[in-house]
Amino acid sequence: MSNERQLAVEIIITRRRTDDRWMGAAACRGMTHLFFPSTAERPQARERREAEARDVCRSCRIAVDCREYARENHEYGLWGGESEEERHNAGYRLIAPIGIRAVG
Ligand code: SF4
């Protein structure tokens, strides 16, 4: 089994069931377009979109729960003011990273 496939299996096996009632207090309700990329989104558009999303997260009272949830569940998109790339670089790897730039 390839390393990437093994990682995907491990992530699926360890995916946590959590109490997600906190999501009801999300400041981003109805703003999905800001938190997930559109198809073939250009880097400059991504930066602008994520900057707008981070502004929403800064006013959100559940940002800590949100960030922890995304890290533990290897989510895509911007959660708790943190992008996929930032989660990935913090050690919370994605199954199939999209737009993650190589470090080093
Ligand atoms: S922290 Fe950001 S992504 Fe998370 S619920 Fe709040 S507004 Fe939405």
Task: Give a quick precis of the structure.
The chain is mainly alpha-helical. The protein contains five helices and no strands. The two termini are about 25 Å apart.
How does the SSE layout of this entry go?
Layout: H1 3-14, H2 32-35, H3 43-58, H4 63-72, H5 84-89
Residues 26-28, 35, 56-57, 60, 62-63, 66, 79-80 line the site of iron/sulfur cluster.
Salient structural properties:
single chain; 104 residues; binds iron/sulfur cluster; mainly alpha
Structural overview:
The relative contact order is 0.16. The longest helix is centred in the middle third of the chain and has 16 residues, at 43-58. The mean pLDDT is 85. This protein has one domain. It has 104 residues and is mainly α. The protein is built from 5 helices and no strands. Iron/sulfur cluster binds at residues 26-28, 35, 56-57, 60, 62-63, 66, 79-80.
- Major sheet summary line: none
Number of strands: 0
Shape: globular
Topology pattern, helix = H, strand = E: HHHHH
Count, helices: 5
Number of domains: 1
Low-confidence stretches: none
Strand content: under 5%
Residues in helices, as a percent range: 40-55%
Indicate the structural class.
mainly alpha
Q: What are the distinct ligands in this entry?
A: iron/sulfur cluster
What is the arithmetic mean of pLDDT?
85
Rg value: 14 Å
